[in-house]
Amino acid sequence: MTQEERRVYLIKALLAEEAQYQNMEIPADMQQQKRFLRALFNVRMPKPVSEPFLEIQDAYLQEETRQKGITDIADLTPMQEGIYLWQGDITTLRCGAIVNAANSQMLGCFCPNHGCIDNAIHTYAGIQLRAACAELMEKQGHEEETGRAKITPAFNLPCDYVLHTVGPIVSSWLTGKDKNLLASCYRSCLELAEKNGIHSVAFCCISTGEFHFPNDKAAQIAVDMVKEYKEQTNSEIEVIFNVFKNIDLQIYRRLLG
């Protein structure tokens, strides 16, 4: 099957799952089709699906990522020993694990085509990721606490695992509790990675953006906690600070020298 054939198959299969979608038309334009499919992925609740669907979805998503271009940690140059800085799409990064800035439900972003990292990771990992998260949360029996972390396979992403952590939401002014909780996110992810034998972790800018943590203070906490963890534990884990915005690139460049 071509990418177009896979895309149309997936759209039709997802539309057929819900009665309220029956009269929806599939856009003719390729980019509109891609947005439509992503939206359907985003709003789909975790539930079983057929093996043929998964096979076609997996082939489609892996090809989409291949076309975007995959970056391997082996091709990056460290800023400091064991610490890297990379600007790009974290869903295209091949390493041990990437970190997802999740919400307390831990089920991914349900807002169609939203620009958050949670949405992107769940989109390109495939519907298996939401199902895996739902299973974890059902066993836990309550929402995820801020500062903790969970691990899942990465499914169709080029990395091996996804570490999901819930960062603090800054509502008005930044507090000491906010800072401690953000530091806990980084430490929890590092501890969980090492527990699972993961040798490299790519951190996004946790709690910035939608959660309103100031970018410069968030970056300082991230760098300080990673260095502190590596010094205290003699860990050889490699850490990539992944940034998307130029402002974060400038901040981390300054902090890492």
Query: What strand line-up does the widest sheet have?
Result: 2-8-7-4-6-5
Element order: H for helix, E for strand: HHHEEEEHHEEHEHEH
Whole-number radius of gyration?
A: 19 Å
Structural class comes to: alpha/beta
Number of DSSP-assigned strands: 8
Q: Which geometry do the CA atoms define? A: globular
Distance between the termini: 48 Å
Helix content: 40-55%
Strand count, sense and barrel status of the largest sheet are:
6 strands, mixed
**What percentage of amino acids are in beta strands?**
5-15%
Low-pLDDT runs of 5+ residues are none
Taking all residues together, what is the mean pLDDT?
96
Provide a short characterization of the protein structure.
With 257 residues, the protein is an alpha/beta fold. The chain has eight helices and eight strands, in the order αααββββααββαβαβα.
What does this structure look like?
By secondary structure, the protein is an alpha/beta fold. The protein has eight helices and eight strands; from the N terminus they run αααββββααββαβαβα. The protein has helices at residues 3-17, 30-43, 51-68, 117-125, 127-140, 176-195, 215-233, 246-256; strands spanning 71-72, 83-87, 93-94, 97-102, 149-153, 161-166, 200-203, 238-243. A six-stranded mixed sheet has the order 2-8-7-4-6-5, with helices on both faces. A two-stranded parallel sheet has the order 1-3. The radius of gyration is 19 Å and the shape is globular. The mean pLDDT is 96.
